Amino acid sequence: MNTARHPRRLGAILATLGAIAGCALGAAPATATVQKGFWGPTNIDGVSQFPIYKDLGVTMYQMPLNWASVASARPADPRNPSDPAYHWPADIDFALQQSRQYGMKVMLMIVGSPPWANGGRAPQWAPTNAADFAAFARAASRRYPTIRHWMIWGEPMRIPNFMPMVAQRKLGQGLTARQKQGPRRYARLLDAAYGQLKAASTRNLVIGGNTYTTGDIRPVRWIQALRLPNGRPPRMDLFGHNPFSYRGPDLKKPQSDLEIIDFSDLGRFSKKIDQYLGRPRHKRLRLFLSEFTVPTDAPDKEFNFFVTRSLQAKWIRDGFKVARQVDAYALGWIHLYDDPPVAEGPVVRGGLMTFDGQKKPGYFAFKNAKR
Fold first, then answer.
1. Which pLDDT value is given to residue 117?
2. What 3-state DSSP class applies to 192?
3. What is the pLDDT of residues 180-224, one digit of tens each?
4. 257 and 18 Cβ atoms separated by less than 8 Å
5. Contact 95/140 with Cβ under 8 angstroms?
6. In whole angstroms, what is the distance from residue 63 CA to residue 50 CA?
7. Is 355 in contact with 338 (CB distance < 8 Å)?
8. How many H helices and E strands in the chain?
9. Does residue 333 come out as left (phi exceeding 0), alpha (psi in the -120 to 50 range) or beta?
10. Which backbone phi and psi does 36 adopt, to 5 degrees?
11. Which residues neighbour 32 within 8 Å (Cβ) at sequence distance 6 or greater?
């Protein structure tokens, strides 16, 4: 979940997409079920939302774990979750209790760094020492031993989410040395966290990369630049991507323009991921599609386009079809409800329900989607 997406910019870019010449990709056979993920509130006014997630068929509830909030002071024993500097959020404990009751997994996205770790800067700045972040990941895994899915930062190829970063200015060209600094800094962070999470439990699965449709550095350029000082790619188990789309999901559609990677580009993108990030004994990285949403009814706070409610439902069905075709590990949705109306300005309209709980056709499309 990424609160600083600047999604109207995404909508503006997506709205300019044109089809370019390219080879359409056919469907690949699916080999496993797709986890149904969801980003949404744990409760509203004290009422748990997990019965709704259960009805929707959600198998993996997703939520953030903010290092900056948990460890505002430097811990003396950073790998120890009982260190008095740590203040673990009660909302995660509630989510874990509810997820057990309703038969779901929980995924945590570790994000943000405290000032003591990043030179006194804002939380989107990477820590000076990747080992500090990795030690926190180890402590978190010990604090939440039943959690097996760990995402390392959300959409780090965006300047509002991750720094230091120098934006890609010219499309169609490789990154400059300065532009490669951000992805290489992230690569060290990811690899260090991978080592500590695996040391805590070999059953932990680490989700890395975590691109989205566009960004200050485009997805393919980002994965090309994800390199450790020794020239190798960072370790991860799954590659995260949020495939927000202006067009309906369909692998037969041509490549997007502007170096964008939307739902219809995932077949081609998977090959690029394996090309640049695969390892000799672990060549293939399955996609973890953490976030998807489509606004309905009217202009939206996040995107400058919208669709009918029936078309939202169709895109959900088609999204799950594509996820199965590319053998994605998971497909998640963000926004359970639309925002309530306000006197001025747009609101979020990408929920599966209206602000007052009316279920859209998309609710039933998500619920009934084949995994």
1. 98
2. helix
3. 999 999 999 999 999 999 999 999 999 999 999 999 999 999 999
4. yes
5. no
6. 13
7. yes
8. 11, 10
9. beta
10. -95, 110
11. 327, 329
3-state secondary structure of 63: strand
| Alpha-carbon dihedral sign for residues 325, 30, 317, 298 | negative
Distance CA 222, CA 224 (A): 5
% of the chain with per-residue pLDDT over 90: 87
Residue 61: beta bridge partners?
38, 106
Name the one residue in this structure whose structure tokens are 């041509």: 254
Which tokens hold the place of 132? 């500090």
> How many residues does this entry show for the chain?
371
Sole residue written with tokens 């939520």: 63
Tokens representing 152?
């390392």
The answer to whether the Cα torsion of 292, 106, 369, 271 is positive or negative is positive
Structure tokens at 362: 């998309």
Report residue 364: phi and psi, to 5°.
-75, -30
* 117-138 CB burial, b ≥16 within 10 A, e <16: bbeebebbbbbeebbbbbbbbb
d(CA 17, CA 168): 18
Tell me if 136 sits within 8 A of 178, measured CB to CB. Answer: no
Question: CA–CA separation, 246 vs 10, rounded Å?
Answer: 9
Q: Are 149 and 141 in contact (CB under 8 A)?
A: no
The per-residue pLDDT for range 152-163, each reduced to its tens digit, is 999 999 999 999
Under 8 Å between Cβ of 307 and 247 = no
Residue reference for tokens 């966290």:
193
Q: What is the distance between the alpha carbons of residues 343 and 337, in angstroms, rounded to a whole number?
A: 18
Q: Residue range 306-329: average pLDDT? A: 98
